[in-house]
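So, can you check what follows?
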Amino acid sequence: MKLRVARHIAIIGWAALAVALLVPVTGAVADGSAEKGKAAFVRHGCWECHGYAGQGGVTGPKLAPDPLPFDALSTFVRTTSRNMPPYVEAILSNQDLADIYAYLSSIPKGPAAASIPLLNQ
């Protein structure tokens, strides 16, 4: 019984993500501030599971660099039924979410392993 419920929850989660990937990106992303997003990322506790730079951790997946498309991330944040609690708009405003997305999008990729001499000895 528990396995069946877990399977249904997983299917619903993946379906929500798939739908979000098909929805066009909204204007909220253009209005995001990376500086405010970094503060919101810390204030709302995102760093506790995802790391200060969105690099991921033991309990939260990697969010940056190259985050999910905004609508997919937004849908997941608002409707998740997994380990992360859903952050409804009353807790995390649309503007804070857009700012957090701008922050995650601003995090640069690290150097390629081939470009680090110590790793190529």
Notes: The chain is about 50% helix and 0% strand. The chain has one domain: 2-109. The domain at 2-109 is CATH 1.10.760 (Cytochrome Bc1 Complex; Chain D, domain 2). Helices lie at 2-22, 34-43, 47-50, 70-79, 94-106.
